[in-house]
Every structure is written in C-alpha cells, then in structure tokens.
Specification:
By secondary structure, this protein is of the alpha+beta class. The chain contains three helices and 19 strands. A hairpin with a 2-residue loop joins β2 and β3. The longest helix is centred in the middle third of the chain and has 18 residues. The structure holds zinc ion.
Length: 278
Amino acid sequence: MRRVAVLFILGFFWPALAFGQGYMARLLHHPVPGGVAVVPLGAGDAAPRAFLGKDRVMVLRDSDGQWIAVVGIDLKTGTGRQALRVEGGTQGDRSFQVGGKQYKSQHITLKNKSQVNPDPEQVRRYEREYKEQIDAYRRFRDAGPSNVSLDRPVNGRLSSPFGLRRFFNGQERNPHSGLDFAVPAGTPVKAPADGVVTIVADYFFNGKTVFIDHGQGFITMYCHLSAFQVHEGQPVRRGDVIGKVGATGRATGPHLHWNVSLNNARVDPAIFINAFQP
Ligand code: ZN
C-alpha cells in the first residue's frame, strides 16, 4: 500500500522534476518581445539577485523548490540571446533566448486632434507625467507578490490585445502597452493581488490612473477610470475595489486599460490570467 502511494506521488511530481519546471515556470514562460522568460537559478538556501541591464528582476521560489528569475521582455527587444546577471546564486550568470512574435495593426480615428498631435504645453505635461509613471514602474521592493497568477481586475470581454500596432488618424504611435476589457462605465475595478498604491492621478493620455506595486518590480496600472476608491500609499488586498471604469484621457469609449510590468518592461497581461495567445 505504501509503495503504491510513493509511486503515485512520484508519478505526480516526476514531470515537473524531469523538466526542471514548477508551476510558475509553466504559467509564465513565454519568451517573446512583450512576453516573460522564466530562467532557473538553482536551489540554494538564499534568494539570488538577478539583473537585466540595470533593472533588477523578480526572483521567486517555484513550486519545485528552484529559484527562478521572472524576466519581463520589452516589446522593442529583438530576437536572440539576452544576458542575465546573477549575484549570490549557485550557477553564476545566465542567459535566455527570445523568439519572434507577430502583432496585429489597428487604425483609429480621433476627433480630438490635440490627442494625436499635442501642442507644446501638452507635450511638456505629458513628459512630466511619463517620467512620474516610469519612476513608479522602476520601484523594487524585496517583498514578493502574494500571487503571480492574477485575478481579472474586471469581468468582461477582452477587446484590444497587448502589442497591437496603432495608427491614430494614419500616424503610427506606440504599440498598445496593455490589455483592454470592454466593460460599461461604473464597473468596479478590483486589485488582482495584494500591493501598495503608488499613483493616483489624472493624466493627459491615460486619464484617471491607479498604479499598484505588488513587490519585486511587479507593477500593474489601471487607466481611463471615472472614479478612484484608493489614495496614494494605501495598502490594498487582492479583491479590493480601487476605482470605477470610465473613458477619461485618450479613450474612444468606456473600457479598462490594464498594464502589467516586470523590471520596467510592459508585458502581455494575458499571460498572468492564463489567456496568452502565441
Ligand atoms: Zn488600452
């Protein structure tokens, strides 16, 4: 009877051990521009520290006991090998391979011309707001996230996907840095994991915006909100309502725009809700 139990347990865990992959690696490893690379760092006692360029990278212990670096890959990254600097690990520096991904294009007509070609004062405002947001994306707290498999912040149809190449009135602008949910104005937006609110602000392009820092450089952003239900510095728990869906800023109608960032790289939020399309 005992032998059967041991065999059953081995059978259950063997695939994970054999391929060196725990639960988080299987969920998150999509190494393409705008995706995530999970890099095994060995199984020592203390957490190693990992860096991609200057940016510190999230390191967690996976379900198979290994330390893993969970690396956000910026959309502008080319295909090929990327170096990961590792301090305090048992295996030294590592590298990972970035594959290719084709993203679709979309053409959008905006009646408000100033949101296509902002005037100089609006450009200065935007640059100030952009810097504030990059500073928030660069925050790194040692505490790890409560969960990396995230809850959907709203229940609704996924509309514009991450990475979409966008042309506003015929002019190409930045690709879509997040994932849109088509939901009515007023829908409550919920924190998908525990964290600390780092920005509550009304921005030129993003409208009413909330940032949540989940720890280890894992940051989420919610924009075009109609109302806030949190303030800066407030700790939030998974499931807490942080605001309501709206159409503030550069939005053609009510929807939730959701960004997920790792090591200051915006990555496809669909990965974290198990909805990634290769
Ligand atoms: Zn969007």
